[in-house]
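Much of what follows relies on a compact textual record of a protein's fold. Here is one such record, which you should read through line by line:
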Amino acid sequence: MSSETSDTLDQAMVRSSGLDTLLRDLTDRAVQEVPGAEACSITVRRAGRLLTLAGSDGMPSGLDLRQYENGSGPCVDAAETGEEKYAPDLAEESRWPSYTEYALSVGVRCALAMPVAVEGESGAAINFYGVRAGALGTGREAARAFAARSGDAIDVALRIERRRQSAADVRTALLSRSVIDQAIGILMARERIDARIALERLRRASQDRNVKLRDLCGQLVARVSAPDSRRGK
């Protein structure tokens, strides 16, 4: 891969605000850099199932989805085996019959899937699609180099996403703790009981009503916080 391409990917990583932006930028760049590629996508296994994290402009949405549904296809096999999968002419391909029928119906004639090593994930691949038989043959070396380079970028994007999810989980936990504490305070003041007994009563009510403790406490806080005129209606 040229130094110009490496610089461009580094710039994409810097200017990207997250997973979607970065990976979409990568797939668009892949189409420009790999000879014969008309479309590109990135597959990663998350929470036990394969997902397409990004696709280049003009990427038919079903190209990867059909493979996931069937449990077979070049990108599925590359992600699960860690081996490169190339189909120079899908019209003569016999490995994935149900998938090749769909791919040909949307104008895809050849496919190349490169495994990508991604930290913390059990399988990933970057997938290239061409519209002519053998179109990706001369681009395989460029595709390998791009896939190797993209692994670092995908790792960065996934770390960004995990941090954001972690921060969102912390915010949710803090909000839940806050509303539970408010509800405990309301019961303490209303019933003249201590915090432990108040929490036990709230938990018991939550179980009896089959309502999450956080939601039950939120309802109590909302009722007490409502204006007197509204409560009196």
About this structure: The first strand starts at residue 39 and ends at 46.
